[in-house]
Each structure stands twice: as C-alpha cells, then as structure tokens.
Amino acid sequence: MTENIENLMLEHLKRFQSGQDRIERKLDDLTRRVNNLESGQAHIIQHLETLAAADAQQQLRADEFNQRLERIERRLELS
After folding, report:
1. Distance CA 27, CA 75 (A)
2. What DSSP character marks residue 76?
3. pLDDT tens digits, residue range 3-59?
4. Does residue 46 contact residue 40 with C-beta atoms inside 8 Å?
5. DSSP string of 16-73?
6. How far, in Å, CA of 6 to CA of 17, rounded?
7. What pTM, to 2 d.p., does this model score?
C-alpha cells in the first residue's frame, strides 16, 4: 500500500516537474522575444535620431538660403 502511495507521489512530482519545465521553456522564449523587441526599438530610436539630425541640417541650410536670398533682394532693392 505504501509503495502505491509512493508511486502516486512520484507520478505527481514528475507531472509537476514536467509542467515546470514547460513554464521555464516558455519563459525563456518570452524573454528572448522581449529582448528582440527591445533591440528593435533601440534601432528604431537610433534611426529616428539620425533622421532628426538630418532634418535639423536641412533646416539650417534652408535658413542660410533664406538669409542669402534676403540679402540679394535688399541689394537689388526688390523688397
């Protein structure tokens, strides 16, 4: 009788261990996926920063052209 109880306990422990193993694998998979998402997000942020810097440079160039155009108009007395 005690042997049956021991076997039953072992079976339950094996099932618990199996369930825990599945949970750990799932957690590892989710951890990898979150890391990939964070890495992708970091790349997007870097790309946005690059685009913002390029936009700032273009705006600076446009401002310089506007200043030059205003000087030319003043010299030619167009405005």
Report:
1. 72
2. T
3. 888 888 999 999 999 999 999 999 999 999 999 999 999 999 999 999 999 999 999
4. no
5. HHHHHHHHHHHHHHHHHHHHHHHHHHHHHHHHHHHHHHHHHHHHHHHHHHHHHHHHHH
6. 16
7. 0.64
